[in-house]
Specification:
The chain is α+β, with helices and mostly antiparallel strands and 404 residues long. The protein has helices at 5-14, 28-42, 80-85, 149-155, 173-182, 187-206, 243-246, 256-263, 282-294, 311-322, 341-355, 371-380, 391-403; strands at 22-25, 47-51, 62-63, 71-74, 91-93, 102-103, 107-111, 122-131, 136-142, 160-165, 209-219, 225-227, 231-234, 267-270, 275-279, 301-304, 329-336, 362-368, 385-388. The protein contains 13 helices and 19 strands. The strands form five sheets. Strands 8, 9, 10, 11, 12 and 13 form a six-stranded antiparallel beta sheet that branches. A four-stranded antiparallel beta sheet has the order 1-7-2-4. The chain has a four-stranded parallel beta sheet with strand order 15-17-18-19, with helices on both faces. The structure holds guanosine-5'-diphosphate (GDP) and manganese (II) ion (MN). Residues 2-217 form the ATP-grasp fold succinyl-CoA synthetase-type domain. Belongs to the succinate/malate CoA ligase beta subunit family.
Length: 404
């Protein structure tokens, strides 16, 4: 689960990670008030207005309606409301959102931390993530902060340092010092970076996260180390014990069909093809998608209705698939193990009648307990539903429908 930058920064702060302070706002007026408050709290007189969406690249991204960037600087308190207005409610397109962009509902009003001083402010890159290959956590660090890390990895991989951490013993002090040295830091900045990395690792563990990306981490002109940006990804499997974090979920940032499917207990992933599929079991779903491709179709989705498929789940699955305008045919492939095929067949017919006005042909392949009875129910229904016994037969019917 992803959370917004403003939420992530609050969570990090709770673990002692120094952050660029800010206050979130949903209207231009609230943005102005946030700036006033921030000035009182931090003494800052420059402000950064940052679009809050679940995607990066905001600084270079553009708001369709106004041409504003997703991260802008205001050097006057009086400018904050106007600059926030140019972002709020607009559609921000960045290299991570895709061309359709994302609507911005909130902005973070943050203190300017790039103020001049004894030294130049310097941006670094830090991330912590799960390395499945070694069964450990890995800290990735680079002096090339603020840039797209994929680009750095492509053009100058030697500038990315990696430090693996055994989760059984946790981050050792020498490892935090090693990373700070690797970033070329000395003196007070070095000490601050060690503190920063240590607190960040504690936060990573404490929140059951699978990925943290802080880009940039900033060394201010007076040698403070702080998080200017924060991308936090929490492991979904831990949300049952991370109730406070689970409450930070923003469904407005997620695909609405995937949200609806989740509420019905369905495992749905939207894809770009033209054949909707509804299957029980992830392995069978993968095989079904292969079969669709084999006959020249493209799966419109992955949908696993789970082991206990019944009329209600079938109907929920139907409704979700039918909302996708690209769908030209639906292939239902269910193995009747615990559930009987005749029950599923009745469920399909029932759901079909309840929803009504289904314009795409449906091919149902039922195999297992009472398969023949199930096929008969489908064939006798008088609906635009076709039965099949083998997966190949089902796929051929899909092909015939696509070519018709
Ligand atoms: P992203 O583009 O979505 O990754 O958003 P970031 O939070 O990383 O911000 C993008 C860029 O905005 C940073 O790399 C900085 O160059 C700039 N920025 C962020 N905060 C400040 C600030 O306090 N002062 C100034 N001058 N620039 C900032
Ligand atoms: Mn960033």
């Amino acid at each position: 689960m992803n959370i917004h930058e403003y939420q992530a920064k609050e969570v990090l702060k709770g673990y002692g990670v120094r952050i660029q302070e800010g206050i979130v706002a949903e209207t231009p007026e609230a943005a102005h008030e946030a700036a006033v408050k921030l000035k009182e709290q931090t003494g800052t007189s420059w402000f950064v207005i940052k679009a809050q969406i679940h995607a990066g690249g905001r600084g270079k991204g553009k708001v369709n309606e106004t041409g504003s960037n997703g991260v802008v600087l205001a050097k006057k308190l009086e400018d904050v409301a106007e600059k926030a207005k140019n972002i709020l409610g607009g559609t921000l397109v960045t290299h991570q959102t895709g061309p359709e962009g994302k609507v911005v509902n909130k902005v973070l009003i943050a203190e300017d931390v790039y103020y001049p001083g004894a030294s130049e402010p310097k941006e670094y890159y830090l991330s912590i993530l799960l390395d499945r290959a070694t069964g450990s956590n890995v800290i990735m660090a680079s002096t090339e902060g603020g840039m797209d890390i994929e680009e750095v990895a492509e053009n100058s991989p030697e500038k990315i340092m990696k430090e693996w951490i055994d989760p059984k013993v946790g981050l050792q002090p020498f490892q935090a010092r090693k990373v700070a040295f690797g970033l070329g830091l000395s003196g007070n900045a070095h000490k601050e970076m060690v503190k920063f990395i240590t607190a960040l690792y504690n936060a990573y563990e404490g929140t059951d996260s699978s990925q943290f990306e802080i880009n940039p981490v900033l060394k201010t002109s007076d040698d403070k180390i702080l998080a200017v940006d924060a991308k936090v990804n929490i492991d979904d499997n831990a949300l049952y014990r991370q109730k406070e974090l689970a409450a930070l979920r923003d469904v407005a940032e997620e695909d609405p069909l995937e949200v609806e499917a989740g509420e019905s207990g369905l495992n749905y992933v939207k894809l770009d093809g033209n054949v909707g599929c509804m299957v029980n079991g992830a392995g069978l779903a993968m095989a079904t998608m292969d079969m669709i491709k084999l006959v020249g179709g493209e799966p419109a989705n992955f949908l696993d209705v789970g082991g206990g498929a019944n009329a209600t789940t079938v109907e929920a699955g139907f409704r979700i698939i039918l909302q996708d305008p690209n769908v030209k045919a639906i292939l239902i492939n269910v193995f009747g193990g615990i559930v009987r095929c005749d029950r599923i067949a009745s469920g399909v017919v029932e759901a079909y009648k309840t929803i009504g006005d289904i314009r795409v042909p449906i091919i149902v392949r039922l195999q297992g307990t009472n398969a023949a009875e199930g096929a008969k129910i489908i064939d006798d229904s008088g609906l635009k539903v076709f039965s099949a016994i083998t997966l190949k037969e089902a796929a051929d019917k899909v092909q015939a429908v696509l070519e018709a």
